[in-house]
Amino acid sequence: MDEADRAYAEAAAFKLAISRARAGWTLAQVEATDQLGAIEAALKSEKEPAARPRIALAVWRLRKDGAGLVEVVRAGLRDPSQFVRICTTEAIIDFGPDASALVPDLEAAMEGDEGVLRDSALEAFRVIGSPSAPSVPAILKVMEANPHDLPLQRLCLRALAAIGTRSDAVIAAIRKADEEFRNGNWYYPREALRKLGAK
Prior knowledge:
2 domains
C-alpha cells in the first residue's frame, strides 16, 4: 500500500468511525423500550473505539442506569487516540446531566494540552451542572493559565455559571476576566456574576 492509498484508507476509517458513532446516538433518541435489546446487541458487537462510548450512553439512557456502562465510556476518555477521546467527550455533552459519574474522568482529560478536548470537557461540565463542582479548581487553573484567550475564558465562565459554586476564588476569577475584557463591559463575566448572585 503506497502513501496515497494509506491516506485514503485512514480517511475512510475516520469517516466510518464518525458514521457509526452518530448511528449509535440516533438509537439513543428512540424512546421505545423494545429498542433496548437491539442497542445492547450493537454495543456487544461494535469494535470501533470511537463508537462504543456513544452506544453505551444510548443504553444508559434507555436503561436509566449506568451500571456496567460507565467503564465503557471511561475507556473512551482514556483511549490513546485523540479522535476517540474527543468523540467520547462530545457524546457525554449530548448525554447531559446524568453523566455526573464521569466528572473526574473529564477533569483528567482536560489536563492535557489538546485544545479541542479541553474545550469539550469544559462544555461537558456546563451541561452536567452542579455535580461538576469538584472540577471548579481545575477550571480556575485553566482561566489563570490563559488570561488572554477570549473563547477559552468564555467556556470557563459558562461552566462556572452553570455549576453554581459561589466562592471567593470563583468570584475573584470572574472579576479578573471582567477586567481583562472590555473594561467590565464583556457579557459573559457579568452574566456569570448574575447567575451566582454576585454583583
